[in-house]
């Protein structure tokens, strides 16, 4: 299995808001994302991402080093075919 590569295009930031298109290459297949975020404080941020290939949505919240995110293929969770949750902890040294 190959390591995914990521290309970030020109991001735009205005005050606490940002938007960033992204392409992830997984096994040489491009996945296109549009991400929008809001960071009201240094320790808190909100993020919404839309995957164009699969028409899926991810929404997350980060507090300090902890990031919690939900992924779904439909905004209406009752009609969703797939729902996923992820939690990650960022550690830097």
Helix-strand layout with pairing:
Blueprint: E1 5-8, E2 12-14, E3 17-26, E4 29-38, E5 44-51, E6 56-63, E7 66-72, E8 83-89
Antiparallel strand pairs: 1-3, 2-3, 3-4, 4-5, 5-6, 6-7, 7-8
Outline the structure in words.
With 93 residues, the protein is mainly β. Helix content is 0%, strand content 61%. It is built from no helices and 8 strands. The protein has strands at 5-8, 12-14, 17-26, 29-38, 44-51, 56-63, 66-72, 83-89. Strands 1, 2, 3, 4, 5, 6, 7 and 8 form an 8-stranded antiparallel beta sheet that branches. The chain is globular, with a radius of gyration of 14 Å. The relative contact order is 0.14.
Low-confidence blocks of residues:
none
Q: End-to-end distance, in Å?
A: 27 Å
How much of the sequence lies in strands comes to over 45%
Mean pLDDT across all residues, rounded? 86
- The level of helicity is under 10%
> What's the total number of strands?
8
Rg, please?
Answer: 14 Å
Secondary-structure element order, as H and E?
A: EEEEEEEE
Overall 3D form = globular
Q: What is the overall number of helices?
A: 0
How can the largest sheet be summarized? 8 strands, antiparallel
**Helical/strand content category:** mainly beta
Q: Features of this protein?
A:
93 residues; mainly beta; eight-stranded antiparallel β-sheet; 0% helix; globular
Outline of the structure:
With 93 residues, the chain is mostly beta strands.
């Amino acid at each position: 299995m190959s390591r995914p590569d990521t290309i970030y295009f020109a991001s735009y930031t205005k005050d606490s808001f940002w938007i960033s298109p992204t392409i992830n290459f997984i096994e040489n297949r491009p996945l296109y994302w549009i991400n929008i975020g809001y960071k009201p404080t240094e320790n808190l941020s909100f993020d919404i991402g839309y995957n164009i290939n699969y028409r899926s949505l991810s929404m997350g919240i980060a507090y300090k080093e902890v990031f919690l995110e939900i992924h779904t293929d439909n905004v209406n969770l009752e009609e969703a075919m797939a729902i996923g949750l992820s939690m990650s902890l960022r550690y830097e040294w």
